Amino acid sequence: xxxxxxxxxxxxxxxxxxxxxxxxxxxxxxxxxxxxxxxxxxxxxxxxxxxxxxxxxxxxxxxxxxxxxxxxxxxxxxxxxxxxxxxxxxxxxxxxxxxxxxxxxxxxxxxxxxxxxxxxxxxxxxxxxxxxxxxxxxxxxxxxxxxxxxxxxxxxxxxxxxxxxxxxxxxxxxxxxxxxxxxxxxxxxxxxxxxxxxxxxxxxxxxxxxxxxxxxxxxxxxxxxxxxxxxxxxxxxxxxxxxxxxxxxxxxxxxxxxxxxxxxxxxx
Length: 268
Hints:
This protein is of the alpha/beta class and 268 residues long. The chain is built from ten helices and five strands. The protein has helices spanning 6-17, 23-32, 37-66, 89-93, 99-102, 117-130, 140-152, 156-164, 181-195, 221-231, and strands spanning 106-110, 135-139, 168-174, 202-207, 235-239. β3, α9 (181-195) and β4 (202-207) form a beta-alpha-beta unit.
């Protein structure tokens, strides 16, 4: 902490820790007990440590609750932006600023398999967690199963509400499963509720299919069309083309198989 701003920074720590305490009280204690500058700094350092520790605990909790993969976690630093080219590359490189989520814009990463769509979605969600925003990741097939189970047990409202809460909701691999009419109606309810949500919020989609092809995977055309209207009313769509990233660490060895000649030694 800076000594010149020690009381201001202490107030920041206290607010983060949600303590019923303020810098004026510390100043009073310091005055009554004749604290030296070094003693006052030591007190401030303790508050700074506790505040930092709480922040790290919050981030770790958000990451655990997000369902983002923990094995080889995907980050923006780990994405090879140098492989991408085009007039709009700067828009992709600016994703770590989280401008879209703070502007209430949805995001879609569309393109063939292996170009890094899921990597970018997971990296965005991880960055949201680091900024203290609740994130939730699931495959489209998992979302479909959630809807089916919710309808079976009459928990539609509870399930949708749980998916409205996260600031960043990531739905991976749209187009890999089929939503029946009832589940498409729940999908619309989810999108509609999030569309009306106040404050920062975003749904991130990844798909091998262009949005105008999604109708093939959803019954209930009216509900889907209304969903798409709300999803892409305010959205950033990244149409990523190119060769697959996968297999870069794969090494191919060329060998031949065939009969071996036998050598027979004759002893005299």
